[in-house]
Amino acid sequence: MSHNQSSDDKQFNYSQNIVYITNNELGFDYLRDNMATGINRRVLSPLFYAIVDEVDSILVDEARTPLIISAPDMEPTNKYLKFAQIAKVLKETTHYKIDEKQKTATLTEDGIQEIEKMLGIDNIYISAHYNDIHHIENALKAETVYKKDIDYLNRNDEIMIIDEHTGRVLSGRRYSD
Q: HSE-up of 54 (CA within 13 Å, CB side)?
C-alpha cells in the first residue's frame, strides 16, 4: 500500500487477507475514514490481526509524533515573510524565550511591545491581530529551534521534515503550525 493509490485501489487492497502497510499510512487512512462523508468513501475493511515490525520504534519513538490531517494554508505568503523578517531582529531573552526541549518560542512583554511598534499597532491582542502572535512565535521557532539539515531539508524550494528518530525524510509531512 502507498499514499498515492486511489481510494478504489486502497479499498481493494484492504479487502485482501494480508496487507503490507506502514504504520503512518494505516494511521492516515484511519483518520481519513473517520472524516469520510459516506460509508462508500471509506477504504479500511475490518482488521483482525496485525504483525508489526519494529513495534518498539512505532509504539515508543513514533508515538510522540501525532498524525494530523491538515488543509492547505490559505494565508498569503507575504504575511509569513513579514513575520520571518520580524523574527530576525528580535533578541532572545529580551524579546522572547526558547524552550529547546518543548521546541517552543514565547514572547516576553518587551517582545510584545517591540512587535506592536514594528507593526504600528496599539494592541496585538485585539481580534484583528489574533493570529499575529502565533505566526511570530512560529517564525521564531523556524529561526531558532529548527535546524536545517537536522530537523528539515530544503529540496527544490520544498521543506521536507526529517524524522528525529530515524533520520529519514518524512515525505508528504509538514509541521502542524
A: 9
Cell triple for residue 27?
Answer: 494511521
User: Could you report the per-residue pLDDT of 84-109, keeping only the tens digit for each?
Assistant: 999 999 999 999 999 988 889 999 99
| Helix%, strand%, coil% for the chain, nearest 5 | 40, 10, 45
DSSP E strand boundaries for 7-139: 96-99, 104-107
Q: pLDDT tens, 110-127?
A: 999 999 999 999 999 888
Residue 152 forms beta bridges with which residues?
148, 161
The domains of the chain are located at 7-64, 80-144, 147-177
For 19, 52, 53, 171, the CA distances from 59, given in Å and listed in that order, are 20, 10, 11, 20
Please count the residues of the chain: 177
d(CA 175, CA 72): 12
pLDDT digits (tens, 9 = 90+) for 30-72: 998 988 888 888 999 887 788 888 888 777 777 777 777 776 6
Would you say domain 80-144 falls under CATH 3.90.1440.10? yes
